[in-house]
User: Fold Succinate-semialdehyde dehydrogenase/glutarate-semialdehyde dehydrogenase from Deinococcus soli.
Amino acid sequence: MTTISNDSVTRHQAYFDGAWHTTPRSFEVIHPGTLQPIGSVADCTEGDARRAIDAAELALKDWRKVNPYKRGQILRRWHDLMFEHKEQLARLMTLEMGKPITETRGEVHYAASFIEWCAEEASRIGGERVPSRFDHKRGFTSSEPVGIVYAVTPWNFPAGMITRKAAPALAAGCVMILKPAEQSPMTALYLAELWLQAGGPANTLQVVPTNDAPAFSAPFMEDERVRKLTFTGSTAVGRLLYGQAAKTIKRVSLELGGHAPFLVFEDADLECAAREVMASKFRNAGQTCISTNRVYVQRSVAAEFTAILTRLTGDLVLGDPLQDGTGVGPVVEQAGLDKVRAQVEDALARGAKATVGGTLKEGLYFHPTVLTDVHPDSLILREETFGPVAPVVVFDTEDEALALANASEYGLAAYAYTRDLSRAFRVAEALEYGIVGINDGGPSAAAPQMPFGGMKNSGVGREGGHWGLDEYLETKYISMGL
Ligand code: NAD
Assistant:
């Protein structure tokens, strides 16, 4: 059985109501690389949820009044502690959800960058003076914390999806109760430990794992005191929670699924374009919301481009995610693998060809795959994939490419490769997506101040930068008569 070095008792508990708790029930966390358990964590109940809300109410009273410079200092220490614990955090993430260790090291930087930016920004949250049409009145705005936030996060970025929410919430003076994904609760608990070590006051960030998310979430969705829901995960669950949040008119941020198209025009640098498809497609074994899901390539360069993509994909090392040289690890769990296999089998049955891969290696390890001649009705062109498979489709004209790209319920990220400046603008403006990478397959890593979020069924709101901070602030208008 794989064991975690630098393990701590608290990483198996839950942090709420001012203390680390062991619960009567617990549940196992499985390493996808070996399918062996790496430990078990507390399984919190609805009763625990209610205690966490009561504790959050008290914590909010003080935290919202803490001087923003002081809030910034605590966030800064949290950021620094993440770097002191970088290797342990990276290893823990890899053990929990199977992402290659070189990527989880990168995730520590990515996750910490949101804390650093928000630490600096805390002291810049203020208000405005707004002119009145009456001489005897003065108008002001004041930005105030939304209040108690319930956060629900996925497993695919066990640290990044937490700090992208918690850092702006805490900087704004909100308090957060976080329900991490069942697959990766230990990273969340580790971050809670570091927050407390950094000087974060009790109950400002409570982390409550559970193996029964629907039942556990109910008290939060019904409670008037919980003023905001922030969720990252699938569109199906986001839609459900959006409806539940309506009862108490909570503020809502939803970061949901994607089905990113990648357009390669005939004037593109094909080698560059193929390398960016690789980075966007095979990072985290294709399990990111902005992963390329559909590659559209112009007919005149389709054969050359597919040959490059096939060669590069064949060079990827599929294996133990804890090893430094590994490029692609396992997918997170059996259900994810089943979906990938079903999509590949469906595409092959409809006439597609695998130029590389197409099969399972062992366990949860699926060979990185490129498919060509993919029929338009194939599942893989309609559903989010979340696996290491790149379907390549040929197009003739720019209009056709845009129509194919936009024919999706999702609108999170899209990419296009071209050296024609006018086309670059036309395409960027026509793509119905919240994030567009022109000659860039990795726009989200650029900086923590970039807005991240989707249109259509990919979500509501933005994370990152001042957009992400605004999600945790209410604007109060104060009118003063002289
Ligand atoms: P998921 O929706 O199954 O789970 C996400 C979270 O919701 C988990 O914490 C889970 O426990 C919880 N949950 C599930 N059912 C619930 C319910 N009925 N009530 C309350 N909570 C519930 O998603 P996942 O498989 O963990 O993550 C993958 C999905 O997340 C993909 O669709 C991906 O595109 C999306 N995602 C989006 C972004 C983004 O920024 N847009 C980022 C990462 C992942």
